[in-house]
Design brief:
This protein is mainly alpha-helical. The chain is built from eight helices and no strands.
């Protein structure tokens, strides 16, 4: 079987050459909507959920003590899964639009002309169940990613501010936020990539002949099993470099901006 893309640089070149800038930006609209739903939920609810867990298990607020990793992981995981569930239809359309190609077909070709066209066709063929196909895989993906991302960032920020405060890296320093988020990006990509592979395959498969579920994978666990048994364990890390090149800068910019917004809110609101 001929692979249309061998690495990140070659994929950029091939897509850009054959489809131009528009091809490289496929799925941008539903991608924006998904990120708003996902990150708006998980970042907005993380601190309140974490505070509830700290008070329930320790009797103290989360601001009055060092980070407790299991509680941070639980808060991040719950918020990530909630955000993924809300944004799942947009992730579904985004994945299918990005996989569509006239010169190098990857997976089943759905050929949506726009985000609204994709949502309309999915609703017509499968109703609400069709719109939320693959949601369980997306929740596993976002839950794993958010639990590691949010908890690791909290721990790294606390560690850096405690040990490097004498060099100006205090809790409110942009440098602290940058270093903590840079370290976090690598760990979250390592944990998240297998779930990313599975969720992409769940979303991009065609419907079964009966119209209920996917033709290749019935659920994420079966997808995990089939992928590893036929392609080996490291198939779960396909696209790792491309994933990190997206997720690394995203993590850094997200946390740096979030911290600045929080500081602005504390100062002026």
């Amino acid at each position: 079987m001929v692979k249309p893309y061998n690495n990140v640089a070659q994929a950029f070149w091939v897509i850009g050459k054959n489809e131009g800038l528009r091809g490289l930006q496929k799925g941008l609209g539903p991608g924006y909507m998904y990120q708003i739903m996902l990150n708006g939920t998980r970042l907005g609810f993380y601190e309140p959920v974490k505070s509830v867990l700290y008070k329930a298990f320790t009797g103290q607020s989360s601001d009055s003590q060092r980070p407790i990793i299991p509680l941070n992981v639980a808060a991040g995981g719950m918020c990530g899964m909630a955000g993924a569930a809300l944004g799942s239809p947009f992730f579904l359309v985004k994945t299918r639009m990005q996989s569509a190609s006239n010169f190098a077909a990857v997976g089943f070709q759905h050929n949506y002309t726009s985000s609204l066209d994709g949502l309309r066709k999915i609703w017509r063929d499968g109703g609400l169940r069709g719109l939320y196909r693959g949601m369980d895989a997306a929740m596993m993906r976002a839950g794993a990613g958010s639990s590691v991302q949010l908890a690791t960032y909290d721990h790294c920020k606390s560690y850096i501010s405690r040990n490097l405060a004498h060099r100006g890296y205090n809790d409110n320093s942009v440098g602290t936020h940058f270093l903590a988020s840079m370290i976090t990006g690598f760990f979250v990509c390592t944990v998240m990539n297998p779930f990313d592979v599975v969720s992409t395959r769940m979303y991009n498969q065609k419907s079964s002949a009966a119209g209920h579920g996917g033709a290749l994978y019935k659920n994420p666990l079966q997808c995990f099993y089939k992928t590893v048994s036929t392609e080996g364990f490291f198939s779960l890390y396909k696209g790792f470099l491309a994933h990190y090149l997206r997720l690394g800068p995203h993590t850094i910019l997200m946390f740096v901006f979030v911290e600045q917004i929080k500081a602005f809110g504390k100062k002026y609101i």
